[in-house]
Amino acid sequence: MLTVTEAAKEYLTKVGKPNVSLTVKGGGCSGFQYEWGTTDNEPTVENLWLDPMAEMFVFGCEVDYVTELGGSYLTVKNPNATASCGCGESFAV
pTM for the complete prediction? Predict the structure, then answer.
């Protein structure tokens, strides 16, 4: 359903408790927006709790942890997105 890269697995393991959560909500430039947070819920995949309502939006996606000069962050690579905004925070399906 959702793939987690090795870099993301390492990051999620380091974060530990509370677990990282991923939800999808309406909004943003392109219609839907990823929302990262923390939760005490049991992880769905690799120390990542996925909101059950978000599953249909992230099916087939890859979660990656990116390290750049300006900072590091978790990101979702969504092959199902038909459009996305320039900052990568919102998408359309």
Answer: 0.82
